Amino acid sequence: MLTGLKLWNFTSGNLPTEELCPSHFVLTTCQRSLVLSFNRYPFTNTDLPDHELHSGEAAYLFLLETICGLKSKLIGENEIVGQFKEAYKIYAASTLKDTKLLTILEKLFKDAKDIRTQYLIGISQKTYASLTRRHFQKAKANHVVILGSGQLAEDLINQFKKKSEISICARNSARVSLLAATHKINVIPWEKRHEIHNHAFIAITIGHSEILFADDFFRQWNQHPNRVFVDLGSPSTISTNLTLSDGLFRLEDIFREGAVVEGQKQKQIDLARAAMLTITHKRKALLEDKILKSKALLTPQNTTDVRYL
To answer: What's 251's domain CATH number?
Structure first.
């Protein structure tokens, strides 16, 4: 069953969504965009931006390493699991879903859980959200404004809500209302987003080609004597010359903080990679065996009733 699996891996912001056909699984993160298909070409055009293409076992192995955080700049980070599950929910609810892809993704979740449990416990306590929280804690932020409403935004809410007041601002009003009700936080209407320069502590999780906050905004925000702005969006939606010394942290700065992997952790990672290769081979064999058994049940058998001999 893995033989027909195809995986297109684009760098962040490089996915040609206007050329993407329905019925294919898509995952977009701050580092990459993945398109998963089964025995079909998922694009309306063959002239695609630079990308990697993986097939069969190689595609499954790539997915396994990605969901386990081994393709992330923060090795072993677990926020990618939530992003996978959120994308899976959306795809599973689609009327155009491919049941074969759903089966593969379900097996992927199981295999990834096994790998994380056996090899990657404690490999990365420093996720994007926890590293971001550290900067706000150091500045003693009592009120944090979060822009965005996706999984990363909710991870930030969970990191901050015990010690800080939180306000959320995003385009998706339905999702914002749900987060506000679930976590008992404040809402800033999206139409008033340019007014948040009045707040000293801001974290943005939105990735988009559009610039949302430019020099005029930061000129006013920079007047706060004690301030932190963390941009986790990719592509970045801010345009400013401000840097770390001004209290502004970009995604690259967060990556650098979590980039160092100690020798013992590297050993864990090497063991995990070896186990992933083994489990991918086993998964292929199990899925192929399942298909053969299904075909056998559907094939009429040539039998003779002994009563008529």
So the answer is: 3.40.50.720
